[in-house]
Design brief:
The protein is 51% helix and 11% strand. The longest helix is centred in the C-terminal third of the chain and has 21 residues. The radius of gyration is 28 Å and the shape is globular.
């Protein structure tokens, strides 16, 4: 038995080696330079020892591996910058290319070493780890529900650069391969086998033996694409079949990405070029694209926000260090409407006991039925069993009696957005709960400090703002009132972590963080419409800028009437100067004159016909006093307005102390309202453009469209000093 640091290596009586990947200092295996070096030695040992017939690679942990350590890739960028200064651009680029392809060349050496390799996979096997499995000649997956394979690199602005694009495109029909690579989804075992990505599925305790048996029975040490006469699954690129694929693939790429995601374009190019070449040259093409993407601003921004920062926040970066872990067991949810019922579902799904309270038991039962429906949907999709549903429903107790909250550790109210209604609920809850129970309000706009004034214990009062639909949206805003204590914050963060969502901690203000940015986006759409910009152009500009939907469509989802209500509440609180009359006029006409409330009554900015796709309401043109000629409108400027207005609002939240950590603004803006992910988030959009250039852009927009584009003092200071949001945060931390 040969011992490595990260692998256990042993050869059985049949001459079959077993390399068990088990990193002692990590909870999950990751690909590091040391792991690559040891894997290289294993390949040499297997290939060079006549007594070894072949090798099975498996994991000693609950998961196979999540892939490469992205911090290692970030380090490559820093080394590139250093070399570029010392030895020039060409030497730096050569180094960068050679280093970024090391893993690809290692896997190719494994694939062509002349001995069969098999991968026995249990748990998640993603990214570079799945590329290792793809380079093995045989793949067997465990039939356990937690087993997933996939190449999710596109989700952080990268793409599979260790052979993934070439091997997947030779295992599957080209159209299917492109779809899999574009989406970056995690695939279940049976689906992976049906797609041709795995050879077999077996019970967990039999996967290693199944892999060994394949080698024992003379498994081939040659990949299909290295065999003579290999034919591509969809025929050659330049063939009748190939030409059925590439024009539509290009069109789908443009439609889905609006050309904002260089990594997805690189996949398209790598597969297109690679399928016309022998494997070694194809891998070189992939490596060139990989090196290019790895150096892009988009990859840097997305890796920082969607990988590094998100991991930090999920691991409790904002949790008070001196508060011991909380042991939450029972959670009360007040209000069994759509929001409360969904909160009850995600809470019970995390294993907590839930007391779901409404004005009468019938209303509470109705809220519980929502969980039944959601679980039934999961069962229909094969993602849950009937027993899982029964167990989850058993954890939810519907009730009309506040006394049932007596042994809750946390209570979340999700009642109507009215301070008076909430004040009544707070009094009833506090009369029933233990003195150490934390009280959370799920409010989207009402300041927490104001609500906490009606509480007997403001130190244990906190905001937990869920986004709808709760079961799908990954972000939760935790709002600190002026008197909220550390125990309340720690409890809220522990709860959000338990329900597997990503928290951001914000200080109290009207609309907090996410809704302020969202309202700025919707406002800009409204004002464009009143200026005479065709509604289709407004919506297209939103999508082309990288937002999931246009501002008018988004307003329909949240309710046009809600927009009017917020506007009027803002004026009542802050005076006439706080609102824009053109927006009020537009919303008043739509809601009060036309009765168009949004998707909920099937008519808003769009019409929602039964059984047909939504379409923009033709009557919008009649609301425009001076319709503009489409060909005279600058589309680039529309896109800039829609992103800049949100980024400005994000900058103001930093200036006001609502956001204290730029990571939270970036993660929150992407997860909460889909702010153009390729930018890295609302503050990264400013940082990567450079505050000076951003302020200049604001100046142009301000001169043309008004003072809502005036940059706040924080940005003027940063433009003058050359600082960035992340630079300031790092300096503050160091101090």
């Amino acid at each position: 038995m040969t011992n490595f640091t990260n692998f256990r290596f042993e050869v059985d009586g049949d001459g079959i080696a077993l390399a068990t990947w088990d990193m002692a200092d990590r909870s999950m295996n990751v690909i590091t330079p040391q792991v690559m070096e040891e894997l290289s030695q294993i390949v040499d040992k297997v290939a060079g020892d006549e007594a070894i017939k072949g090798c099975v690679i498996t994991s000693g942990k609950d998961s196979f591996s999540g892939g490469a350590d992205l911090n290692m890739l970030q380090g490559l960028g820093a080394e590139y910058e250093r070399l570029a200064k010392e030895k020039g651009e060409e030497a730096a680029m050569q180094f960068f290319f050679d280093e970024s392809r090391k893993l690809s060349l290692l896997y190719r050496r494994l694939e062509t070493c002349g001995k069969p390799f098999a991968a026995a996979v249990h748990g998640v096997c993603l990214g570079g780890a799945f590329e290792l499995a793809l380079a093995c000649h045989y793949r067997v997956l465990s039939d356990v529900d937690s087993t997933r394979v996939g190449l999710p690199e596109v989700k952080v602005g990268l793409f599979p650069g260790a052979g993934g694009t070439q091997r997947v495109a030779r295992l599957m029909q080209t159209g299917d391969a492109l779809q899999m690579l574009f989406k970056g989804d995690q695939i279940r075992p049976l689906m992976a086998r049906n797609m041709g990505l795995a050879h077999a599925v077996a019970p967990r305790d039999q996967i290693v033996q199944a892999a060994k048996d394949w080698i024992k029975q003379g498994g081939s040490a040659e990949a299909p694409w290295d065999q003579k006469g290999f034919k591509l699954p969809s025929n050659k690129v330049y063939s009748a079949a190939g030409m059925q694929i590439w024009p539509p693939a290009n069109a789908i790429y443009r439609r889905e990405t609006q050309d904002n995601h260089p990594a997805i374009y690189a996949i398209l190019e790598s597969v297109y070029q690679g399928l016309q070449l022998p494997m070694d040259l194809a891998l070189k093409v992939e490596s060139r694209w990989f090196a290019k993407i790895l150096r892009s601003k988009v990859a840097a921004a997305m890796i920082r926000t969607l990988f590094v920062s998100m991991q930090d926040l999920n691991k409790g970066a904002r949790r008070p260090k001196d508060v011991p872990p909380t042991s939450l067991k029972k959670v009360g949810v007040i209000g069994a409407g759509f929001m409360g019922a969904s909160v009850a579902y995600v809470t019970a799904n995390a294993g907590f006991e839930v007391v779901l309270i409404d004005r009468d038991v019938e209303a509470a039962e109705k809220g519980k039925a929502h969980s039944h429906k959601l679980m039934s949907d999961q069962i229909m999709k094969g993602r849950a069993k009937t027993a899982d549903r029964d167990a989850l429903l058993a954890r939810i107790t519907p009730s009309a009696g506040y006394s049932d909250l007596k042994d809750c550790d946390l209570v979340i109210e999700a009642v109507f957005e009215d301070p008076q209604v909430k004040a009544e609920v707070i009094a009833k809850v506090e009369a029933a709960i233990r003195p150490d129970c934390i009280f959370a309000s799920n409010t989207s706009t009402l300041p927490i400090t104001g609500l906490a004034k009606t509480s007997k214990n403001a130190g244990q009062f906190i905001g937990i703002h869920f986004f709808s639909p709760v079961e799908k949206m990954m972000l939760v805003e935790i709002i600190m009132g002026k008197e909220t204590g550390e125990k309340a914050l720690a409890t809220a963060l522990d709860y959000v972590r338990a329900i597997k969502k990503t928290p951001i901690v914000v200080n109290d203000s009207r609309g907090f963080f996410a809704n302020r940015c969202v309202l700025a986006y919707i406002l800009e759409g409204h004002l464009m419409l009143t200026e005479g910009v065709p509604a289709t152009m407004i919506e297209q500009a939103g999508k082309q800028a990288g937002m999931p939907v246009g501002p008018l469509s988004l307003n329909d989802e949240v309710g046009v009437d809600l927009g009017l209500k917020i506007l009027r509440a803002t004026r009542a609180q802050l005076g006439d100067a706080a609102i824009i009359p053109e927006q009020e006029q537009l919303l008043t006409t739509l809601v009060e004159k036309e009765g168009r409330l949004g998707r909920k009554n099937r008519k808003g900015f769009y019409d929602y016909p039964e059984g047909g796709p939504k379409r923009l309401w033709p009557g919008l043109k009649g609301l425009q006093v001076n319709p503009a000629a489409a060909e005279l409108i600058d589309m680039q400027e529309l896109k800039q307005r829609l992103l800049v207005t949100q980024a400005l609002e994000a900058a103001r939240t930093v200036e006001e102390g609502v956001i204290t950590d730029p990571r939270e603004a970036d993660v929150g803006s992407i997860l909460g309202f889909g702010f153009a992910p390729y930018t890295g988030g609302a503050l990264s959009y400013i940082d990567f453009m450079g505050p000076k250039a951003f302020v200049e852009l604001c100046g142009k927009l301000q001169a043309k469209h008004g003072d809502r584009f005036a940059p706040p003092k924080i940005l003027l200071d940063m433009a003058a000093s050359g600082e960035t949001f992340y630079g300031r945060a790092a300096a503050k931390k160091a101090a």
